[in-house]
Amino acid sequence: MEFYDYSVKKINGEEIKMENYKGKVLLIVNTASKCGFTPQFKGLEELYQSYKDKGLEILGFPCNQFANQENGTNEEIQEFCKVNFGVTFTIFEKIKVNGENAHPLYKYLKEEAHGLLTKEIKWNFTKFLIGKEGNVIKRYAPSSSPESIKDDIEQLLK
């Protein structure tokens, strides 16, 4: 399968096909509300506001696989992101990113862009940059700030 063959559910349960994002640059992030990296929501939203009209989409995937840092319901997660960080980019249903029950999209992403020592996602806020043709361009560590990805996004949007 290729990137555009996958589909996912938005936080409201609506199924979305990745093919809907053809021609867009995507930043895919596994998120959590109670993580030391949670303030990155602010930077992600700033990136989204700066580049959404030029073709950037940010896709947030809440995940509770790391130290129980995303244990809320989908509704609570959506509210938290909106109220605390003004998030307007798309948030999807809570998923698993590792293990045999990992979401198929994340299995694909991890095959396409391995981490430093392993394919597995090490923590919340691991980021994947996807080009306009659906190619996985780069994987970023959780500690990579949204601001540090700005130049790579600008290059892909040209």
Head-to-tail CA distance between termini: 27 Å
Secondary structural class? alpha/beta
**How many beta-strand elements?**
7
Spatial sequence of strands, sheet with the most strands: 5-4-3-6-7
- The geometry reads as globular
Structural commentary:
The protein is an alpha/beta fold and 158 residues long. Helices cover 26% and strands 20% of the residues. It has a 5-stranded mixed β-sheet with strand order 5-4-3-6-7, covered by helices on one side. Strands 1-2 form a two-stranded antiparallel sheet. Strand 6 and strand 7 form a beta hairpin.
What's the quick description here?
The protein has 158 residues and is an alpha/beta fold.
List keywords for this structure.
158 residues
Q: Helix and strand layout, with pairings?
A:
Blueprint: E1 7-9, E2 15-17, E3 25-31, H1 40-51, E4 56-62, H2 74-85, E5 90-91, H3 104-112, E6 127-130, E7 136-140, H4 150-157
Parallel strand pairs: 3-4, 4-5
Antiparallel strand pairs: 1-2, 3-6, 6-7
